[in-house]
Amino acid sequence: MAKKIAKPTGGHMSPFERIREVNEAGNEYWESRDLAEVLDYTQYRNFEAVIEKAKMACFNSGHRIEDHFADVSKMIEIGKGGRREIDVTLLSRYACYLIIQNADPKKEIVAQGQTYFATQTRRQEMADGRIEEDRRILLREEMRRHNVQLADAAKDAGVVAPMDYAIFQNHGYMGLYGGLKQEDIHRRKGLNKSQKILDHMGSTELAANLFRATQAEEKLRREEVKGKAAANRTHREVGAKVRQTIQELGGTMPEELPVAESIKKIETKQRKQLGKAETPAKKKGTPISRD
After folding, report:
1. Is the pLDDT score of 127 beyond 70?
2. Per the domain annotation, does 97 fall within a domain?
């Protein structure tokens, strides 16, 4: 018999939170039969129709259905030692949100679910946004460090003058961005000359450029490349190889990725937030740890 889901009331844990599961990889999910029970669907076949509507809504919103709905089979006990196989759909938080939007609105529990998943989904989006910001700041700092090392390797190869180094950098961009130079990327992404491309890249684009920079540096040193022309050719070849890898993996080409908020603005915002967090402690005389 399928397990019964208790529906706590008052200030107890939300019934939707109670049936939330976490797999070995740390990813949360909900089982469709548990969710159907919480939502008072006595006939699971009626709930399957709701799932299908949610899948269509997922598709229409531009998301991959398989990323949010996983159809699987599981064995359940049916009494006297018997077991039988049933179909279950494993649901992401977003999938649950779509299901709630397509469930019977006359049910009070459905209204509660709409509030729960709308709130939790927004919290998750905000948390994901903070993770992306932190990832961008880390990758941008790595780019600064590796660009210094790349410049040093290019200098050893014979790229000395600032103008020559600018040309050298452009070759790397042209390889990675399908022939686009730095000024072309600026224009394509709607950036002005004072805005640095790297400061407006998301983490995916920054990671691609970091891989380009590290691999170009290593190749220049490993093969002891000499001469400006050879260094430029090496940098472009590395960029093109990174682009080819992205294409083979089905990724988005870097020039097609959206422009992100300036990392400098994010860093300023985080410093202000840190200052606000520390100020109350100082006002109350609470000792600030120096560890």
Report:
1. no
2. yes
Per the structure, the complete domain to which residue 40 belongs is given by 15-104
Residue closest to 247 by CA, chosen among 148, 176, 160:
176
Which of 103, 76, 71 is closest to 90 using CA atoms?
A: 71
Residue 284, domain member (yes or no): no
Distance CA 100, CA 88 (A): 17
Q: Per the structure, how many domains does the chain have?
A: 2
Final residue of a structural domain among 104, 120, 151 = 104
Helix (H, G, I), strand (E, B) or coil at 95: helix
Domain boundary among 104, 121, 145: 104
87 belongs to a structural domain: yes
- Give the sign of the dihedral formed by CA 53, CA 54, CA 56, CA 60: positive
Number of C-beta neighbours around residue 242 at 10 A: 23
Specify whether the CB–CB gap between 169 and 181 falls below 8 A: no
Q: Where are the beta strands (DSSP E) in 80-126?
A: 82-91
Question: Which H or E element spans position 22?
Answer: strand 21-22
Angle at 22 between CA 21 and CA 27, to 5 degrees: 130
Q: For residue 1, give the amino acid letter.
A: M
Q: pLDDT, tens digit, for every residue of 152-206?
A: 999 999 999 999 999 999 999 999 999 999 999 999 999 988 899 999 998 899 9
